[in-house]
Specification:
about 180 residues, 5-stranded parallel beta sheet, alpha/beta, 7 helices, single chain
Length: about 180
């Protein structure tokens, strides 16, 4: 099985998207959280993820902070619905999970990261529980320290996921040298 560890901010949205007219002119109040979050995601970036899924038969694991229990949306079903509304309808069931959240949340205390934890630790924990995974790619705009370079696609927050980034992810998932 092939896995895509997907970040949202800087991948599925970008500075360019948020500065654009479509984003700026969206209604300021929405009836539900799903509708509100729809405006925060660039449909063109979701279509690029759809292309990666179609060409590689990969499954999606959300590694974004959006999956955190402290974040406003954090469930696999919710995030799958969000992506489906943006063009991943046929791949909605491809969103199979979220990485574990290793943030220490003590009542009455601000969240802190457990010593030595980072996004790669969370991805590694997920991979440890997925022995059927034979290939994976991490798509993120931030450096995910520890991620093998041959499994990492770093996007540019100013533009989000590009066609070139999608091609690189496809090559990684097909086991091609990059």
């Amino acid at each position: 099985m092939k896995l895509i560890f997907l970040d949202f901010d800087g991948v599925l949205n970008s500075h360019a998207w948020m500065a654009g007219e479509v984003y700026k002119n969206k209604p300021s109040l929405y009836a539900d959280r799903l509708a509100w979050h729809l405006g925060k995601i660039d449909p063109a970036a979701v279509l690029r993820v759809s292309r990666i899924v179609q060409e590689t038969d990969a499954r999606i694991v959300i590694s974004s902070a959006w999956r955190s229990s402290s974040h406003h949306c954090g469930s696999t079903a919710y995030l799958g619905a969000l992506l489906a509304r943006h063009g991943l309808q046929e791949h909605r069931k491809r969103v199979i999970g979220i990485t574990p959240d290793v943030t220490d949340r003590r009542p009455g205390k601000p969240p802190i990261q457990i010593v030595g934890s980072d996004r790669w630790s969370e991805i590694r924990m997920y991979l440890d529980g997925a022995p059927e995974c034979d290939r994976f790619v991490v798509i993120d705009d931030d450096p995910v320290i520890g991620t093998p370079a041959e499994n990492f696609v770093r996007t540019d927050y100013t533009v989000g996921l590009t066609d070139v980034d999608a091609e690189k992810a496809i090559a990684i998932l097909h086991g091609e040298a990059i």
